[in-house]
Write a structure and sequence with these properties.
The chain is built from six helices and eight strands, in the order H-E-E-E-E-H-E-H-E-H-E-E-H-H. It is of the alpha+beta class and about 220 residues long. The protein has a domain at about 10-20 and about 65-205: 3-Layer(aba) Sandwich (L-fuculose-1-phosphate Aldolase). Helix 4 (about 125-135) links the parallel strand 6 (about 115) and strand 7. It is globular, with a radius of gyration of 17 Å. The N and C termini lie far apart (about 35 Å). The structure holds 1,3-dihydroxyacetonephosphate. 1,3-dihydroxyacetonephosphate (13P) binds near residues 19, 20, 62, 63 and 83.
């Protein structure tokens, strides 16, 4: 988790002590501590939390522990929650824009759109409720006037998706500069989603070499 936090900042999708990461474990979940720079963070700084909101250790959990807890509790398909303030995703989120299927890769988040959650103050139950709503049937969402959340079955997958969401957001901002781009039809996006599932497209970090599908 510490390594993933450092990679998140080094990749350019996060800055300073913004963002946070959690992973499910047998006792509940581990979450990054609040307000500690990733380059100073050590594994013993991670905070063990229970789903009832109690925690152990000397560090205080991320201010966003509620959405980490609620997502891990409500989404058995998810092992990792990663939140960051990537610049282009946040730019769109400042305008409460959903990313539409202007590009086929929008489907990497599991549907035809990457929704933007309604604004609520950071660290609140209201923000968690809004995020869960925007994440319905999705692996990523934007957070209004705040940032983005990407989910995964592994740390590597969640980080890869967050980088992909940021790339899509950047492309969308640039495409909008030339006018409203055309949107792929729902029928075409259904084909893309089917094709991605068949090929485990964009999911390489989740797969061992032995599991990776062979090319025809
Ligand atoms: P924490 O340092 O409390 O995790 O907060 C960072 C953040 O991004 C809040 O949304």
């Amino acid at each position: 988790m510490v390594e993933t936090g450092r990679r998140m900042n080094a990749s350019g999708i996060n800055q300073g002590t913004s963002g946070n990461i959690s992973i499910r474990n047998p006792h509940g979940f581990l979450v990054t501590p609040t307000s500690l720079p990733y380059d100073r963070m050590q594994p013993e700084d991670l905070v063990q939390m229970s789903f009832d909101g109690t925690y152990e250790g000397s560090r205080r959990p991320s201010s966003e522990w509620r959405f980490h807890r609620d997502i891990l509790q409500r989404r058995p398909d998810v092992e990792v929650v990663l939140h960051c303030h990537s610049v282009y995703a946040t730019t769109l989120a400042c305008h409460h824009k959903t990313i539409p299927s202007f590009h086929y890769m929008t489907a990497v988040a599991g549907g035809t759109t990457i929704r933007c959650a309604r604004y609520a103050t950071f660290g609140t139950q209201a923000l968690s409720d809004n995020a869960l709503e925007a994440l319905e049937d999705r692996m990523a969402c934007l957070l209004g006037q705040h940032g983005q959340i990407s989910l995964g079955r592994s740390l590597a997958a969640a980080l890869a998706l967050a980088i992909e969401v940021e790339t899509l957001a950047r492309l969308y901002v640039q495409a909008l500069a030339l006018g409203e781009p055309p949107i792929l039809s729902d029928a075409e996006m259904a084909r893309v989603i089917r094709q991605m599932k068949n090929m485990s497209y964009g999911q390489a970090p989740d797969l061992d070499d032995a599991e990776r599908p062979k090319a025809d």
